[in-house]
Amino acid sequence: MRPEKLDAAAIAEHLHKMEGWVLDEHGTSIWKAFRFKNFAEAFAFMTQCALEAEKLNHHPEWFNVYNRVDVTLSTHDASGLTELDFKLAAKMDHAAAGRMPDHLK
Length: 105
Known about the structure:
Layout: H1 8-16, E1 22-23, E2 30-35, H2 39-56, E3 61-65, E4 68-73, H3 83-96
Antiparallel strand pairs: 1-2, 2-4, 3-4
């Protein structure tokens, strides 16, 4: 079953509850930059997120260099944002907790 695209009000409500996630200019994806203590912490974060993404059958677009992981979430099947994006974003925030230096939170 194809995920249902969220309207602007639902997206705004979700974003209000989340820290650091930014809506793109077209309203079709959310983005967040994660910064970790080192490469090992960044890779551990990505590994944990990959396992969660597989469970949801919803996969991020991400970019990693050393301690930085930039994540973009969107549901391509719906041509925009769905509940899956916000579920995965919440799981990513949880995976990042305790891995990021205090000054980068």
